[in-house]
Design brief:
alpha/beta, eight-stranded mixed beta sheet, 19% strand, 32% helix, Rossmann fold, Alpha-Beta Plaits, globular, 2 domains
Length: 268
Amino acid sequence: MQSSQSRPEALAAGGQVSDGSPEPPPLDPARHALFLDVDGTLAEICPEPSQVAVPPATVAALAALQRALDGALAILSGRSGAAIDLLLQPLRLPYGANHGAEFRRADGQARRLEPSAALPGIVAALRQRAAGWPGVLVESKPLGVAVHYRMAPPRERDVHDLVHEVAAAHDGQFDVLTGKMVYELKPHGVDKGRALREFMRAAPFAGRVPVMAGDDLTDESAFAAAQEAGGFGIKIGPGDSIAPWRLSGPPELARWLQALRAKAGAIQ
């Protein structure tokens, strides 16, 4: 997802839009750090967030790659930290959850922003307004709220206007993110690019070359951060992106991860 700007921040800042090459290069386990989104990247997008599942073979590949990369593997997602752990169990990977508002380091130390006192009232108001829009789903998160219209596409303008109205009424506490059939309120000033940069300042990520894979507009800030540090982004699925590489969807990413796992095993 992206902020309420008409283009992703990285593109507006002059990043070049790329159609993406069909296959990203293999990674060097001794040199690279890997960052991954979840929905639409490790897992297919579903009508309801609760229906999403990461294939067990992909979880096994992540476990092997975490070892091969000496721990330099992290998740950057709009989901909560608890939801990430549930989807990837038994793995407990470092994460920048809720777009970086929740952060767990490789050593297990975690911190998160305090939720706004206004959030419960916002969620209740959104649910009340959306109750008359069949198919519109209000997803409460620990630090924000998402309003999905995947099952009610004609309501896109209504959802857009409602979420922006709520954001405007709360004095800059929240940013509006625009994603695939969803508008979301997140704490002001956090994004995946900042989370990636924070990871890269500490072991085991420091000194490595970052690679980020993601499917949505909020991943663009992380692509930009990776490229600033000499790495690159991998766009999953269609759409404009500054990422120079592209894979068609989660199944193709899973195959790429399995190939990395096999290569790392051969090296070790």
